[in-house]
Design goal:
alpha/beta, seven-stranded mixed sheet, two-stranded antiparallel ribbon, 7 helices
Length: about 230
């Protein structure tokens, strides 16, 4: 008997369990009020387990934030969905993502057909994210190691996503919003992060809207000296 041939019933059972897990994952997002078809499709097709640390892959399709290297955190999928729903990305839009982390949200943005520039302050995380993005064959993604909250000369974006909470949104980031564009992140108010949405209208005026509390880690400025 060839020992290299996998046990067919076992393989079929694994595939079935993965399908059940994916379906339950999407149902849980719908239960949280996520109804956007394109977003749900992206979250169904992008396997979060590819981006999760190996010892936590069994928790990848659950509403759990997972620890990453460099003391960072992989945000829970419900929070990710809420932020992407607020961001309302359209195909072809230029998106700046601050805080690449595992690369999971980057892959979702790419699946939504955005032209993504993602900035990560930890080179270790950026290298790992690049590997993950190759595995899932992400679309238009440019990864950078640097300070995503710093000034970018001449750059303008249709959408900006801050993957973390700030005590205030830096003016340098707001200045990157083109007319008709939108920024989504988390603003910490009295110690609690809340969803924040900032829009620049056609006349160049900014409006800020504070939303529901979010479970998300702080966003740190600067480039990491190590890691």
């Amino acid at each position: 008997m060839n020992e290299d041939v996998p046990d067919l019933p076992e393989a079929e059972n694994r595939i079935e369990q993965q399908a059940i897990g994916a379906a339950s994952f999407i149902l849980s997002l719908r239960a949280k009020g996520i109804r956007d078809t394109a977003l749900l499709r992206a979250m169904e097709l992008v396997p979060r387990e590819v981006f999760a640390p190996r010892r936590f892959t069994d928790l990848a399709r659950t509403e759990v934030a997972l620890p990453l290297p460099c003391g960072q955190t992989m945000t829970g999928p419900g929070t990710v969905a809420a932020m992407l729903l607020a961001l309302s990305v359209r195909p072809g839009q230029r998106v700046l993502e601050v805080g690449t982390g595992s690369g999971y949200v980057t892959a979702l943005l790419a699946k939504l057909e955005a032209d993504v520039t993602s900035v990560e302050r930890f080179s270790t995380l950026a290298e790992s994210a690049a590997q993950h993005l190759r595995i899932v064959e992400a679309g238009k993604v440019q990864l950078e190691v640097g300070d995503g909250l710093a000034t970018r000369v001449r750059d303008r974006f249709d959408r900006i996503l801050l993957n973390g909470a700030c005590t205030e949104i830096p003016e340098a980031v707001k200045s990157l919003l083109a007319p008709g564009s939108r920024l989504v992140g988390a603003l910490t108010v009295e110690g609690v992060p809340h969803l924040v949405q900032i829009e620049r209208d056609a006349a160049g005026e900014l409006t800020q809207t504070l939303g529901a509390p979010l479970r998300i880690s702080p966003l740190v400025t600067g480039i990491a000296a190590t890691l």
